[in-house]
Every structure is written in C-alpha cells, then in structure tokens.
Amino acid sequence: MLHFNRCPHLKQIAQKCFSSIHVRTDKHVQLFLSRTFALAEFRKSWHSTHSVVGDKNIILMGPPGAGKTTVGRIIGQKLGCCVIDVDDDILEKTWNMSVSEKLQDVGNEQFLEEEGKAVLNFSASGSVISLTGSNPMHDASMWHLKKNGIIVYLDVPLIDIVSRLKLMKIDRIVGQNAEISLKDLLKFRRQYYKKWYDTRVFCESGASPEEVADKVLKAVKRYQDVDSETFISTRHIWPKDCERKVSTKFFSEAVIEGLASDGGLFVPEKEFPKLNCREWKSLVGATYIERAQILLEKCIHPADIPAARLGEMIETAYGENFACSKIAPVRHLSGNQFILELFHGPTGSFKDLSLQLMPHLFAHCIPPSCNYMILVATSGDTGSAVLNGFSRINKNDKQRIAVATFFPENGVSDFQKAQIIGSQKENGWAVGVKSDFDFCQTAVKGIFKDSDFTGFLIMEYGTVLSSANSINWGRLLPQVVYHASAYLDLVSQGFISFGSPVDVCIPTGNFGNILAAVYAKMMGIPIRKFICASNQNHVLTDFIKTGHYDLRERKLTQTFSPAIDILKASNLERHLHLVADKDGELMTKLFSQLEEQHHFQIEKMLVEKLQQDFVADWCSEGECLAAIHSTYNTSGYILDPHTAVAKVVADRMQDKTCPVIVSSTAHYSKFAPAIMQALKIEEINHNSSSQLYLLSSYNALPPPHEALLERTKQQEKMEYQVCAADVNVLKSHVEKLIQSQFI
C-alpha cells in the first residue's frame, strides 16, 4: 500500500475550537437537558470525525480543468506539507503508463474500477490531495478518502471548464463517447461532486489560482471552527466583563427553539457573509436551486447541516413542488417596474419559498429523542404553507413532528380558510380562533414564554414546542435567496448590469419579507431603497415616518389584503436590533413598553438611520381595487390585492431613476371575490370553485394556478376546531393535539 507521512505543518490552520456548551437552566429546563446534551454530543461527534486536525488531509475535488493540481501545489507551499496528485503520483506510478493510455486501453467502465482500486490501496495523512475528475464516481474509494480528510469541492462555472479544456487541448474525458457531449458529461458529473463534498469553494470566473487557494484555506478553517457562527437573542445584554461567556446558540438550536428564552428573536452574532462582485456575476447564469445552494451554504455551518445534505434538501424543496421551473421568476410589468412572482409554490403564496425547505432543516436539526409540536399563528397564507411543507417530510419525521396552526376564524378570505382547513394531514391541524391575527400571534408567543406550561409538556409528554412563523430563523433565512435571485435575473435578462442599484417594494405586515431583502443587501445585492407598503393597517408606515410605534386607539381593520392585516410586526425587532448596533437592552425596553403601554418611540438618531434605507406609505381599499383594474386594462396582468397595495405605493414613492422590483406575494386566485369586484365582474352567487374557473377563462397573466384549481375540486369538507380568544383555551387545544399525536 502506498503511504505518505503526515506533515505537521497542517496544524497551522487547525484549532481546538469546540468548548463546553453553557446551558441555561430553570426549574423545568432540567427535565429537558437530554435534548441540549443530544445537540452537544452531535456536534462533538461531528467535530471528532470531520475536523481537519493533525493527520487529516485536504482533498481537492472537481471536474477536469478546475485547477485542482495547481491550487493543491499552492496550498502545499503555504502549509509546507506534502502534495499528492492522484493522476501523477498514484495512478501512473501504479500502472506504469499514462492515464490517457490506460483509458484507451481498458475503456470507460474498467478504467473507473481500476482507478478506484488504486486509490483504495493508497493512504496519506497531513497532505493536500488533488483528485482526478472521475474519482468521485467510485463510492468505495471516496469513502476511503473521506475517513481521513475534508473534501473541498472546487465549483467552477461550466463555461469556464469547457474553455479551459479547449485550451488544454483535452477533447475526451472518462465517460465520454460519441453519444454524449463534453458539456453534457460535465453536467452529469456534478451529481457525484455534490454527493461527496464537505465544503464548497465557489471559483468565480476570473479568480486566480492563488485566490482560489486562499479561499480553500478559509473554507477549511470555517469547516473545522464549529463555534465560529453563533446566534444571540435580540434582547441579549452584553456582559460588562468581557471574559464572561456570551450566551449563544448554534443554527440548529435557533431553528429548534424558534423564540429565545428571554422573548427576543435569534439573529447572527456576527455579520452576514458577503459575496464579492465576481462571485455574484458567476451566479447570473445559475438556476434558482444553484443560487440557493451557494447562498445558504454560506449562512449555515456544516456542523449544523452538512453541505451535501443541505444541497439535497434544497433540491427536494424546489425540485418538483413549483409550477414554474424558475421558482421565483421576474416579469417586466411596465416602465421601470418588475414583478417578482413568489406564488408558484403548492399553496400559491410567497410562504412556500421558505416553508418547502424549512421543515427539512428542522427535521434534520432536532435530536431523535424528543417529539416536537410546531405552533403557528397565521394571517392567511402561512397556515396552509406550513401544513403543506411539514406534510412532505419523511414518514419517520412525521411521527415525531406535528403542526398546529391558529388562524382568525373570520379574518382570512373564504378561499384561504378552505385552503388552511384542506391542508390538514396526519401530522397537522387547523384551529380557528374567534379573534384577529394579532391575538393569535401574541397568544402563541405567550405560550412559548410560559415556562410552567412548556415544562409540563416536556415532563408529561416528552414534547417540545417550536415555531414555523418568520420569528423562526430557519423560516426567514430562505427568503433571502429570492430577493438576491430577482436581482440576478434582471442582470441575466439584460435590464441592468451588475452593480446598478434597484429599489424593492414589498407589501409588509410582519416585516419578515422586507427584512430578508435587507439581508440580501448585506450579502452584496445593491438594493437602494426598501419601500414598505401598508394597507389601511398602516402602523409600520407611521413608524418609519415618525419613529413612533403606537397601537393605542388603533384597531385592526379587515381589508382585501388579509396577510398584512397586522399591527404587531414581530420581525421589526430584528431590524431595530441591527439599526441600534445590537443594543439588546434597548430592545428589551422598547418591546416591553409595547406590551405594557402599547407604544414606544425611538430616538431621532435611530429614526434618521432607519430612513436612510426605508421609505413607506399606505394604500386604501379603493386604491387597491383601482390598481388591479388599471393594471389589467393596460397590461393584461392580474395583481392580487397584496401586490396591488405594493404597486400603488411604488407608483407614489419611487422616483423612477432605477428599476423597482415589486414583490407579488400571492396568486390572485386566492382572492377571487376582490378580483371580481376590481374587474367589475358581476358575481351571481358564485362559489369559490366557479369564481376561479371564471377568472381563468380570461386568459390573463399570470396563468391560472393549477394547484389552487385542484383544491377547489375537493368536494369533501374537512372538519376543524374553533376556539375562543383565550390563551388557556389554546393551551388546552395544544395539549389535546399532543395527546392524540404522540401518546
């Protein structure tokens, strides 16, 4: 067996990063420590088997022409360690002939087998290993290599690989024949690279080998530094004693817990990762799935979710569940206005973009020893999206994860109500509440903060509560992708060049969607202004204009756009925390005051800082209907009421010096009565099914949503529960659902 001795210099990039986890305890949390220790043990196990410490190898993987050999030599020089090129140092020495001669001699299939055997007979430690482009197609040899190294995928744009191979005068690679082109074979091979990598280095067009080598070392350092990316509560108060351990959570813990124990929301302790201009440009031609994989890998540490597993989740979430292959396409409406269509998912709203992925993230993060009950408050679209998303997790996960969604009984459209109720599955239920959304949301938050009740559920039923609203970081994070993707699509379609600014206008209720756009800007997307569009419940507009968040004497009004009929915008706390330089003490003061006195005022300096990026206005019901009518008449495009609210505000607030991307958050089919009123279609006792089919006969844009049409064909009326607006009654429902599901 070939063996290469360990190079001790590799320790230059290795650190002992895993330290003991400090666990907050109260009288009930002790009953629940097995969950925390399960997470700790998981991370310790991951650390012990995957970190690059001492005798581990750095293994460079990628297609022919990716630069593995060149980059490997540079890394070897930087670390002063052995560099092994599988082609030159293993295969050709084993076979006593060149690789090309061997391929010509034995053919594709036999070559892969003999290549794999040669690698199985080789071992190394503390070295940099450059694989062949075909090594990942042999499972046994890759498992052999993976045991003692970190596999770094050099992800080079396909167009660059093809041009490099032409320059290298390579016209045939392993697996290629007359029936398959080089380009198609390279695409085919990507599935094998995605299967094996531990961390990915995105090699944008124009990056030099030295730059790629530096990226590899940073990726390796990040991979083995399992404590480097943590989360804090927005109400976390920084200790005066700098030596004291800051109470932080890992991504997996933030996703599982949903809401911080102090009532705050989890946010990254450090800044968002940022892509450089060339990296963004290399994503212009990428698919939505490819963009999501690159961006989310940078935001989720592989200790929480391994990169290859995350990629599988993303492909599952966005593979076949969306009616449009582009997932979230951008459509030119008129002038400088573009519509970001976020309604092509299975339930017809923007919530699908995160809730087709979030359940898979959640199921991966939870320890196997506990059951979880997801509590959701919905103003309309979230409920059906959560129930649909969690119905798609695998059978074993359904046995330990259940969902209860609370919606205002008379505060959503008839279609939304039917959709929520119809989305109930074996692990999900809908509960109507005789109140408004703000009560539902406040009640759910109150249940989470009630340590007596949550402790009782853990002790009595072994069940932990969590959330899937946008207060949960795992729900909010995927929304960043579609804001970035929309900008890249405008570049791809030739409307702008990369670096040109755009504005975004978003119908806003709970502040999550517009906050995700803020995070996209922090990652490098050049968004100039965030235009916050409100309906007649315009508390956010008033706040952005004055700095005064005032709920006194303000009652919730039911409108044609129910998803933003919200007075308490939960995610605003995350943005104020950012604007106020992570002042947790101020957040505690402001939001305690909001609960107790129903208003708060931020100081002038913070108002000015907020207004640097944000403008806001609101739209009346009449203006909303008029916008739907006029847009259809001029362009043949039907806006849903939420999108109409945003268009009215965009028309009023945007100065037309740059493009504005208007987020279309739902398909118009969900609000047929309002659309028919706007388009002046006489309603003659139409039920929801006939209303949808009547609208679909107009041949308007966007086309009918097939999944929503299918929903109307369901004749069977499902039962659901209705409860009074009393937190104790909601608690009783939660306990009964836990009993029926888990006991």
From TrEMBL:
Pfam families: SKI, THR4_C, Thr_synth_N. Gene3D superfamilies: 3.40.50.1100, P-loop containing nucleotide triphosphate hydrolases, Threonine synthase, N-terminal domain. Keywords: Pyridoxal phosphate. Its cofactor is pyridoxal 5'-phosphate. It comes from the Eukaryota. Residues 247-318 form the Threonine synthase N-terminal domain. One of its GO terms (cellular component) is cytoplasm. The modification N6-(pyridoxal phosphate)lysine is found at K351. CDD domains: SK (cd00464), Thr-synth_2 (cd01560). HAMAP family: Shikimate_kinase (MF_00109). Belongs to the threonine synthase family. This is Threonine synthase like 1. It comes from Canis lupus dingo.
